[in-house]
Design a protein that fits this description.
Elements: E1 2-3, E2 6-7, H1 29-63, H2 65-69, H3 73-90, H4 94-101, H5 111-114, H6 117-139, H7 149-168, E3 175-182, E4 189-190, H8 196-203, E5 207-209, E6 220-226, E7 232-241, H9 250-275
Parallel strand pairs: 3-4
Antiparallel strand pairs: 1-2, 3-7, 5-6, 6-7
Length: 277
């Protein structure tokens, strides 16, 4: 093809080639393996510490502050996560330093090699697999924990609150004071080692002490709270009559026995399923 009195020959396409100095050698297989394990090992420690502290702190908060202030389980878990994150900040780098001391160091790669997509993907895969393994190891502590402790304590407190309301509103017995002793010791006052309350808990029958002396012992009546199979779960102690020089009578015993039967129904409704485990 002629144009302007001459001919034009076709030009080869322009190719931009990198200078020899910019060519990056691919890491060897051994270097990639070392990079993978160097990325995974610290994340195993991080995942284990994160999950372990979150589970332990969350469980402790759930069974203490959660029960006392009525916090939801998810709220306790969130507070446990805060403790876990704080520990991660405080103890950050501990795993890396420990691995360095035992001679486990990352591969000697140049900055250009570390920027390669292959190296970045291998490093990310190692970190992901490492944190998954660490979290699973941390979660394994759940097998050794009482997972229903918080729920059981909540039900115990609900039961004890219901008992207190029933006893406080039972004016027909006419007692000056009343105390609920818990056989389990989870809530309320524990049963003493000796005395009429201990005797009532061991015998499972209503006991009365009719002595009246303000300087020593006022008239006392102890009523056991029994499960259907006869197990004593609590003892209600009535002490002193509102009418001076009066004592507890058989009619008071019948009222107290009726009160204890209602308390037993509440206990079995709230806590009965835990007795069968």
């Amino acid at each position: 093809m002629e144009e302007c009195g001459g001919s034009t020959a076709s030009k080869p396409p322009f190719r931009q080639t990198k200078p020899q100095s910019e060519i990056v050698d691919l890491p060897s297989t051994d270097q990639l393996k070392t990079l993978f394990f160097a990325s995974a090992a610290p994340m195993v420690g991080f995942g284990f510490m994160d999950n372990f502290i979150m589970i332990q702190a969350g469980g402790l908060i759930d069974s203490t502050l959660g029960v006392k202030f009525g916090l939801a389980t998810l709220t306790a878990a969130a507070m446990g996560q805060i403790c876990s994150d704080v520990s991660g900040v405080v103890f950050g780098g501990v795993v890396e330093r420990a691995l360095s001391r035992i001679g486990f160091n990352p591969p000697s790669l140049s900055q250009a090699q570390r920027k390669l997509p292959l190296c970045r993907n291998v490093s990310m895969a190692g970190a992901v697999i490492g944190v998954i393994c660490g979290c699973l190891l941390g979660a394994s502590t759940l097998m050794f924990m009482d997972l229903e402790s918080g729920d059981r304590q909540r039900r115990s407190h609900e039961t004890f609150d219901a008992w207190n309301q029933m006893v406080d509103q039972c004016h027909a017995i006419g007692a000056r004071y009343s105390t609920i002793y818990s056989a389990g010791g989870d809530v309320g006052v524990a049963i003493p080692q000796s005395g009429i309350v201990r005797d009532c808990a061991e015998s499972g029958i209503i006991l009365r002490c009719e002595r009246y002396n303000f300087e020593s012992t006022p008239p006392t009546m102890c009523v056991p709270v029994l499960t259907p199979d006869g197990k004593v779960v609590a003892v209600v102690e009535f002490k002193g009559k509102k009418i001076d020089h009066d004592v507890f009578t058989e009619d008071d015993e019948k009222l107290a026995e009726m009160l204890a039967s209602h308390m037993s129904i509440i206990f079995m409704t709230k806590m009965g399923d835990s007795l069968n485990r």
